UniProtKB/TrEMBL annotation:
A Pfam family of this chain: HMG-CoA_red
Catalytic activity: (R)-mevalonate + 2 NAD(+) + CoA = (3S)-3-hydroxy-3-methylglutaryl-CoA + 2 NADH + 2 H(+)
Species in which this protein is naturally found: Autumnicola patrickiae
Family: Belongs to the HMG-CoA reductase family.
Gene Ontology MF, one: hydroxymethylglutaryl-CoA reductase (NADH) activity
Protein name: 3-hydroxy-3-methylglutaryl coenzyme A reductase
Listed pathway(s): Metabolic intermediate metabolism; (R)-mevalonate degradation; (S)-3-hydroxy-3-methylglutaryl-CoA from (R)-mevalonate: step 1/1
EC number: 1.1.1.88
Length: 439
């Protein structure tokens, strides 16, 4: 058993690695080499990355790829995606090309309200509290003026503060439920700062409120924190085309493709096991763009999955219909994103991703991310109901095996050609490569 380490965060980077190597890596110099191999030669750039978080000892790379040909509301964009999974960028690019020649994607932001809450305990008469809150509310808004001044200049700010009685669910539990407009910033710091000020005011002013008894004056603030559930920060993206333009496969006509596609979507709407995987495919697209643009993918994931079960059962985030011979496919998701603040002006690749996307506003980015999710889902479901997804996956898998085996470009060409007509498995690729090498 090793002893817990004290003051680890104060160690230098070298000391941290030394400590790790001694205790957990058996002083394996190769392992330490791996860590250092990912350091950036540019010391300033490395220091920037070190300081994004705590106890940094190396960098963790993800591929940064590009899915071109996305026609969104008439603008042709190339979408940067940060993702390690094979086939995702290929599927997005394919779907973009498919819909690009069928009118492209239409996306609309439905609303942009963000949410934060002060959770507190009040032991007393609720009607008295309501009167207290009515008097307090304008002063709460005044008290955050130093924080909201700049946001208001940009057209945002605090939209509403509502008092909520939650005592039916938990004894003496109340909330200030607040709505914010944070314009182009994700707004987490702004929202949390406002909430903490509201909480402080609430607690202090209650002490001075003449109508409260001593017990009522004693408000216990539990938490002041934004919510990652933003069902009123919604974006919708859709594609549509006449049925007779829908199929690009010789085996299915448009009507047959639509029948299969609609049934697949229906299954994801009604069946939880399928819904989760279906939505996971959507998140392949969503997360990759969210990550490339320096946004918080955990927040986005949590909020979107909660939204997928807003009516009591977890269901598909995409829907499809055929009306008057027109096939329509759409997605509606909540997205709290920022294109200013946070990592957006700090991380060089994030800055570049936003430059590639033509410096979008947060609303533009919401549309782009929703489109990436929809495109990804279209690609996945299209593969599933036609060829199956293994065909595409195995192609990438084949490439991964060949790279692992350090195949030369010549060897790759021969083996890829061989597997056009043969089934890929790890063993079959190794066998084939060995045969080739023996020749
Ligand atoms: C794999 O990452 C995503 C899929 O499973 C999504 C789906 O099944 O719709 C292909």
């Amino acid at each position: 058993m090793t002893e817990p380490v004290a003051g680890f965060s104060k160690f230098s980077k070298e000391e941290k690695i030394q400590w790790l190597s001694n205790l957990y890596l058996n002083n394996d110099s190769e392992a330490v080499k791996v860590l250092k191999q990912y350091w950036n030669e540019d010391e300033k750039l490395q220091q920037l990355h070190d300081e994004f978080t705590e106890n940094t000892i190396s960098n963790f790379y993800l591929p940064f790829g590009l899915a071109p040909n996305f026609l969104i509301n008439g603008n042709l964009l190339a979408i940067p995606m940060a993702i390690e999974e094979s086939s995702v960028i290929a599927a997005a690019s394919k779907a973009a090309k498919f819909w690009g020649s069928r009118g492209g994607f239409k996306a609309t932001v439905l609303n942009t309200k963000k949410v934060g809450q002060v959770h507190f305990i009040y032991n007393g008469d609720f009607r008295k509290f309501e009167s207290f809150f009515k008097e307090l509310k304008p002063r709460l808004l005044d008290a955050v003026k130093p924080i909201t001044k700049n946001m208001e200049k940009r057209g945002g700010g605090v939209l509403e503060i509502e008092l909520k009685d939650k005592t039916a669910a938990l004894e003496n539990y109340y909330q200030l439920h607040c709505n914010f407009d944070t314009r182009d910033s994700m707004g987490a710091n702004f929202i949390n700062s406002c909430l903490e000020k509201f909480a402080e005011m609430l607690q202090n002013e209650a002490q001075n409120y003449a109508d409260f008894t001593a017990e009522e004056k004693d408000i216990e603030i539990l938490m002041s924190i934004l919510s990652n559930y933003v069902p009123e920060c919604l974006v919708r993206a859709e594609v549509s085309c006449p049925l007779d333009e829908l199929s690009d496969s010789p085996e299915l006509d448009g009507q047959e493709f639509a029948d299969k596609f609609l049934r697949a979507i229906r299954i994801a709407e009604i069946e939880k096991y399928r819904a989760v995987t279906h939505n996971k495919g959507i998140m392949n697209g969503v997360d990759a763009v969210v990550l490339a643009t320096g946004n918080d993918f955990r927040a986005v994931e949590a909020g979107i999955h909660a939204y997928a079960s807003k009516d009591g059962q977890y269901t598909s985030l995409t829907h499809a219909s055929v009306e008057n011979e027109i096939f329509k496919f759409w997605i509606e998701i909540p997205l709290a994103l920022g294109t200013v603040g946070g990592l957006t002006s700090l991380h060089p690749l994030v800055k570049l991703a936003l430059q590639i996307l033509q410096k979008p506003s947060a609303e533009d980015l919401m549309k782009i991310v929703a489109v990436a999710g929809l495109a990804q889902n279209f690609g996945a479901v299209k593969s599933l109901i036609t060829t199956g997804i293994q065909q595409g996956h195995m192609k990438m898998h084949l490439m991964n095996i060949l790279n692992q085996q350090q195949a030369t470009p010549q060897e790759k060409e021969t083996i890829i050609d061989y597997f056009r007509k043969n089934t890929v498995s790890h063993n079959s690729v190794i066998d084939q490569l060995e045969k080739l090498r023996q020749q």
